[in-house]
Design a protein that fits this description.
Helix content: 25-40%
Shape: elongated
Largest sheet: 2 strands, antiparallel
Radius of gyration: 57 Å
Strand content: 5-15%
Order of helices and strands: HHEEHHEE
Distance between the termini: 140 Å
Number of helices: 4
Oligomer: single chain
Number of strands: 4
Length: 271
């Protein structure tokens, strides 16, 4: 029995030792992991400290730059920078003067553009020649022999531009009817009517020039129709009311109807 009890105690002691060894190994691994975590945290702390130091240095520099005293005098000398106010000492060699090379540049004159002549500027305009005839019969008489002088040539004395304002003219077209003189006395006389070129807009008095004038000022010059109505004045006024056209005669007290209509479509305005 005593030997059996010892064996049991030895086995228990061995189990306890093995458990303690396992616990020690586990604790050692835990210690190593904790040490590794501490080292990583120390590295991060050092990086943070370096970043804080850099930011603090920048903050100090900006404070000095914006809020500190300023001066144009630099107390520290930058490496490789020469001092403008440095006095030459006896040990320093004399500076070698540089030879300046001068380059001669030839002067040039800009040719002035010639002024355009009247013939070039007004080449597309229609030209009307006016021959001056203001001398009296007495002035045209020769003061030596009393003979009437005759013209022998012309000389251009001046050029002017004449502006003619737009004006309205009434033009009535009459159709010509022809008959056959041989068939005149028969039961079937023959007639033919020359109605000429058809109107630009059937049933309207608007000519091609008038329509072009209205469309030019409306769509090219951007002048509304009521502005054209205001500018139209005189004995006969052309009023442009929206898409309608009304012709008012001078002295007419009754307002004419607005718009002209075709005979086939009484509800459609022509212009």
């Amino acid at each position: 029995m005593p030997s059996g009890v010892r064996d049991i105690q030895l086995l228990e002691l061995k189990d306890t030792i093995s458990q303690l060894n396992n616990t020690i190994s586990t604790q050692n691994e835990l210690i190593r992991s904790l040490q590794k975590m501490l080292q990583e945290r120390d590295a991060k702390d050092s990086e943070k400290d370096q970043l804080i130091a850099n930011l603090q240095a920048q903050l100090d520099y900006l404070k000095t730059r914006f809020f500190g005293s300023t001066s144009e005098i630099r107390h520290e000398q930058l490496p490789g920078q020469l001092d403008l106010f440095h006095l030459q000492t006896e040990d320093e060699p004399e500076p070698v003067p540089l030879e300046v090379e001068y380059i001669e540049v030839k002067a040039h004159k800009k040719a002035r553009k010639s002024k355009a002549a009247y013939d070039e500027v007004f080449a597309d305009l229609p030209t009307d020649n006016v021959y001056v005839d203001t001398l009296t019969e007495e002035q045209k008489t020769c003061d030596v022999c009393g003979t009437m002088m005759v013209p022998i040539g012309h000389e251009l004395i001046r050029t002017e531009l004449r502006y003619t304002e737009p004006k309205l003219e009434r033009i009535d077209y009459y159709a010509t009817t022809y008959e056959c003189p041989q068939c005149k006395e028969t039961e079937d006389p023959r007639f033919i009517k020359d109605e000429g070129t058809p109107a630009l807009i059937p049933g309207s008095y608007a000519s091609s020039g008038l329509a072009a004038h209205v469309m030019y000022y409306k769509y090219v010059m951007s002048m509304p129709l009521y502005r054209q109505e205001q500018q139209s004045a005189g004995g006969t006024a052309l009023l442009l009311l929206g898409s309608h056209t009304t012709l008012l005669a001078a002295g007419n007290t009754q307002r004419p109807r607005k718009g002209l209509y075709t005979s086939g479509s009484p509800g459609i305005p022509i212009l």
